[in-house]
Specification:
Blueprint (H helix, E strand, L loop, with lengths): L2 H19 L21 H7 L5 H4 L11 E4 L3 E5 L5 E4 L1 H11 L6 H4 L1 E2 L7 E2 L5 E9 L1 H5 L8 H23 L2 E7 L4 E10 L1 E7 L2 H4 L3 H4 L11 E7 L13 E2 L8 E2 L8 E6 L10 H32 L1 H30 L2 H18 L6 H27 L5 H4 L1 H12 L4 H20 L3 H18 L6 H9 L4 H11 L5 H9 L6 H5 L2 H16 L1 H25 L14 E6 L14 E3 H6 L12 H8 L13 E6 L11 E3 L5 E8 L17 E5 H11 L11 E2 L3
Helix pairs in contact: 4-11, 10-11, 10-12, 10-13, 10-17, 12-13, 13-23, 15-16, 15-22, 16-20, 17-19
């Protein structure tokens, strides 16, 4: 490698190290999602804020750190181990999809909840996993040794990917555990995580929607909140306490660590920590990319999803069966829809793009004057040019994804495409039959949660939007079909849903089970498949190649921009963007006061939830038993001044993926479960405002009250370690 490249690489490492170790002063609301092995650099500040335990109690590699009590729950949430017998606490909405798979009209766990009265009653959840992070290590030197920061991405990625695979293999061989390496700081740094994944997970407790989803869309991403957003699962292991597939003989997992639960509560100003797996942030992107989010991606998604949710809500209100089919899907769609609305509001209130522009103006002055990084001066102009070239395509493709491809019948055309592909491969007959049967079996999951008439109304609503917004960029087949049906989208929908085999599951399964190569033409002519294939071809020919080239280019530019920012602001404390890896953030219990004077309290209570009870509105119906408990003041040990604390806010920097994260006090004891952010601060994935950014958590005392008094599952508390400050 040329000497200049060596100098640049050395500078990159120095800047990154300094960024991690610098002790910059930060405001009371603590921006930053810190890698656990780097916490020693924050010890002074954390102690000043109120931390009472040693840093190596939070994270260490010898098995005694609290990192061994935090799990990646499923594929995108966090959970915490809260007992010596492997109980895991997470959010109600994190367990929602699993519980839907276990529910039916005669076992409606969303309406009535589920509480195991002993371990034998706990329900296995197929496909659910929890993953522990046993150790993390910086392996940047192993991955980027002699790799120039200006190396073309294709060549760079080839080298990096080969090294990642090799280093992962080496760590796995040494530890006898899984090893996963991810990039940080836009690929300027790499860390390995040594993980252990358990696959026998069983449902233990799940409050009904009247508690766990109370407030619905109205309160989602808002403060104050009154939602008991929690659920309980248990990890099971083989005889050696190691991961094992489900077996009746498996035993409850004996954890290396579990959280003590502090039942004394907290007060405003108390120190807190959130430990978990934040999903995605983009704090360091340019103003040009932020404008794409603010002006294109978020508004298009909000508009399309509003229509889809309106249709789903109407049909779900009309039928409990449809409700059960769509409740988990609706929750997923609605969660992003509401979050993006708050994101747009927060970015506007903060003039986030304007502040980015001002920051970039100062950066450009430095880059023009400083010659340490030769590429720095041209980065922002190149980013501007790249983004402006694709803005119109991003607009079109966001509608493609949120309108036609968000219609279930069209999206399911992909399944028919797989059947056709089987014949193109010219597989031997036995292999062909086996493949076809597996594809047929995969359709069961789709039809279990599908309703034709609901989807047809979605088709009418979304296609009407699509033809209005993308009139100049429609695929030809869409235009000809629209014309053939006299520009009547409802008539078009009637035709498609009447003729497509996808709307008749039993007939389709029978047809596909007896499919021959000659019959494949019938599949190809299916109108749902035609709409899917046309859209796939349209994107492949006119959109995807351009966007793929753009994403490749912007990835390299952002990596260089990140490196340059860290060289410029070498006295700033940088943290890596979230990427669903273990992080810790810290801040204090603090009410929300975006306009100066406190606008909201820092805690809500059960009585406030009961005051919202409205039998005419599904999302505000309080279960009768909960009202009876409150009327009788039957709060047990969880009552505080004639009420039960329900939720609270603190100034921790969280993101998607932190759902279910343990909220800890200064001693590392559990005081709550994180589940949301305040509406005004959802833009924190792009811009952190200490006045508006708050994480929202369920008070652990409310969780224990619901388990013991509402769920009559007090036996679970016997295996927990409850502590108090008295």
């Amino acid at each position: 490698m040329p000497s200049t490249s060596k100098t640049l690489l050395s500078l990159t490492k120095s800047c990154l190290l300094f960024g991690l170790l610098a002790g910059a002063t930060i405001t009371n609301a603590k921006e930053g999602m810190w890698l656990p092995p780097t916490l020693k650099a924050h010890e002074k500040d954390m102690r000043a804020e109120g931390l009472e335990i040693p840093i190596d109690k939070i994270y260490n590699e010898n098995g005694t750190g609290l990192n061994n009590a935090v799990v990646l729950f499923g594929k995108g949430c966090t959970g915490e181990v809260i007992s010596s017998k492997g109980l895991v606490l997470t959010n109600h909405h994190c367990g929602y999809g699993s519980v839907q798979g276990l529910s039916s009209p005669d076992k409606d766990y969303f309406a009535y909840g589920f509480w195991a009265m002993n371990m034998k009653e706990e329900l296995p959840v197929k496909g659910l996993t929890v993953t522990f992070i046993r150790r993390m290590e910086n392996v940047t030197d192993k991955i980027l040794h002699d790799v120039s920061p200006t190396l073309p991405d294709a060549q760079r990625d080839s080298i990096v990917n080969i090294r990642i695979a090799q280093v992962q293999k080496e760590f796995a061989a040494i530890t006898h555990l899984d090893a996963s390496i991810k990039p940080y700081f836009q690929g300027n740094q790499y860390w390995v995580a040594i993980t252990e994944t358990y696959t026998d997970i069983r449902l233990v407790g799940f409050p009904p929607n009247g508690i766990g989803a109370f407030g619905g869309d109205t309160e989602n991403w808002m403060w104050p909140r009154h939602t008991g957003d929690f659920s309980i699962f248990r990890i099971y292991a083989g005889a050696d306490n190691k991961p094992a597939e489900y077996a009746a003989s498996n035993q409850p997992y004996n954890p290396q660590q579990f959280f003590n639960i502090n039942v004394s509560g907290y007060k405003e100003g108390d120190f807190t920590m959130v430990y978990g797996f934040p999903g995605t942030t983009q704090e360091y992107i340019s103003s040009y990319e932020l404008k794409q989010v603010y002006n294109i991606i978020d508004p298009v998604s909000i508009e399309a999803r509003t229509r889809k949710l309106d249709v789903w809500t109407k049909h779900m209100s009309d039928s409990r069966d449809i409700f059960l089919k769509y409740t988990s899907k609706r929750a997923g769609v609605a969660n992003g829809w509401k979050k993006w609305q708050g994101e747009v509001v927060g970015l506007k209130l903060n003039d986030a793009t304007g502040k980015k522009v001002a920051y970039e103006t100062e950066f450009q002055k430095w880059a023009d004057a400083d010659k340490t990084l030769p590429f720095a001066a041209t980065i922002l102009p190149r980013i501007r040019e790249a983004t402006q070239k694709v803005d119109s395509l991003l607009y079109q493709d966001q509608y493609n994804k949120e309108a036609p491809l968000a219609i279930e019948l069209i999206a399911q055309g992909a399944a028919l495409e797989k059947f056709v592909a089987c014949f193109r491969l010219n597989l031997p007959q036995l292999q062909l039959n086996d493949t076809l049967q597996k594809l047929i079996g995969s359709l069961d999951g789709f039809y279990k949660n599908y309703h034709e008439h609901t989807d047809k109304d979605v088709f009418v609503s979304l296609m009407s939007l699509y033809f209005t917004k993308c009139a100049n960029s429609l695929p030809d087949y869409y235009k000809t079909q629209y014309t053939a049906h006299n520009q009547d989208i409802k008539a078009w929908a009637d035709d498609i849903y009447k003729t497509s085999m996808l709307t008749a599951p039993e007939k389709m399964k029978f047809f596909l089970s007896n499919l021959t190569n000659a019959d494949s033409t019938k599949v190809i002519n299916d109108p749902a498949l035609q709409l899917y294939r046309t859209m796939a071809a349209h994107r492949a020919q006119k959109i995807t190649p351009v966007l793929k080239e753009y994403y490749t280019q912007i990835k390299m530019l952002n990596r260089q921009y990140m490196q340059a920012q860290m060289a410029w602001k070498n006295d700033k404390e940088f943290y890596p963007d979230a990427n669903l890896t273990l992080r810790l953030t810290y801040g204090k219990v603090k009410g929300l006061d975006p306009d100066g004077e406190p606008k909201y309290m820092w805690q809500t209570k059960l009585s406030e939830a009961l005051a919202l009870d409205n039998p005419a509105v599904d999302e505000f119906i309080v279960p009768k038993k909960l009202k009876d408990l409150s009327k009788a003041k039957n709060f047990g040990r969880w009552g505080v001044n004639g009420d039960v604390p329900l939720a609270f806010v603190a100034a921790n920097h969280t993101s998607g993926g932190n759902s279910g994260s343990p909220v800890l006090n200064s001693k590392g004891e559990l005081i709550g479960t994180n589940f949301d952010r305040a509406y005004e601060g959802t833009m924190s994935d792009y811009y952190f405002d200490p006045n508006r950014c708050r994480n929202i958590s369920v008070d652990i005392r409310y969780t224990l009250f619901i388990i013991e008094k509402f769920g009559d599952a007090g036996w679970l508390l016997n295996e927990m370690k409850l502590v108090s400050n008295k």
